[in-house]
Design a protein that fits this description.
heterodimer, B: mainly alpha, two-stranded antiparallel ribbon, 4 helices, 2 strands
Chain lengths: 158, 105
């Protein structure tokens, strides 16, 4: 029963993470390409032309949900996954996960600012902060997703 | 009067406090997953298996950042730190990476 609960939580954590990855990546690509220029009709141009502002609320909600789900699963990782990693001498895997948790913890603290900076009144005055924070959140989402995926491949729950 | 909350101050203070709590090993509380128990930072539980500081680090950072975010108004912080706000989380993440470098040696 406990294994089933963990497996379900891990799957939901992963699925919410995928949604977050999609939203942050979409916003990041739109920011890097300047957005709003879909005239050539190519896939990448239309991908980058997505309304960047529309993603902000979804990213805040998805980030908070992903971290909350991760926080619920974390004790089981600490006992069932990290201890074997230590026995196997997989320091890089432990360190990668430590980075994942710290990056997520720090990102959680900047979500209110991220949401504020995406308000229309800060569009011009805080363009650099808003873009950099958005790219940073996308980078954290990618790091956390890849590390979680690789570590789960090395040794999953159960 | 409605209490104000400065997201800019909160973010900057949270990032600094997070790294400070990590460096000084001062999580507000620790969780002991083997026995399913929480303990304050000043009462570690010996012989209870591994402890987890992550929740406590976020709590420590929020504990420092929340009152500051109530005291320092957003317009002031947003004006003073314009163009620099993104550096706080980036610096905090780089500091964490540096502090964890022994895992990759």
């Amino acid at each position: 029963m406990q294994t089933l609960r963990l497996t379900l939580l891990l799957i939901v954590h992963g699925l919410v993470g995928v949604a977050l990855l999609g939203a942050t990546t979409h916003q990041a690509v739109a920011l890097l390409r300047g957005g709003g220029r879909a005239r050539d009709g190519s896939f990448t141009a239309r991908y980058a032309a997505a309304g960047r502002q529309g993603f902000a609320a979804a990213i805040v909600a998805l980030f908070a949900a992903t971290v909350a789900l991760g926080a619920v699963i974390y004790p089981d990782y600490r006992l069932d996954v990290r201890v074997p990693f230590e026995e196997m001498g997989l320091g890089w895997a432990i360190g990668s996960f430590e980075l994942k948790e710290h990056f997520a913890g720090i990102a959680l603290g900047i979500l209110p600012l991220y949401a504020v900076l995406w308000r229309p009144q800060f569009a011009d005055s805080h363009r650099r902060d808003r873009s950099a924070l958005s790219l940073l959140l996308a980078a954290v989402a990618w790091w956390d997703f890849v590390v979680g995926h690789v570590l789960n491949n090395i040794r999953g729950f159960g | 009067m409605k209490p104000s909350f400065s997201a800019a101050t909160f973010a900057a203070a949270y990032c600094c406090a997070y790294v400070g709590a990590f460096v000084l090993d001062l999580p507000l509380l620790r969780y002991y997953p083997l026995v399913g128990t929480w303990r304050w930072w000043y009462e570690p539980l010996a012989g209870a298996g591994p402890s987890m500081a992550w929740y406590g680090l976020m709590a420590s950072a929020a504990l420092v950042a929340l009152p500051l975010a109530m005291l320092v108004p957003d317009p002031w912080a947003l004006r003073r730190l314009r163009g620099l706000l993104w550096l706080f989380p980036l610096a905090a993440m780089l500091a964490c990476a540096w502090l964890l470098r022994q895992f990759f040696a």
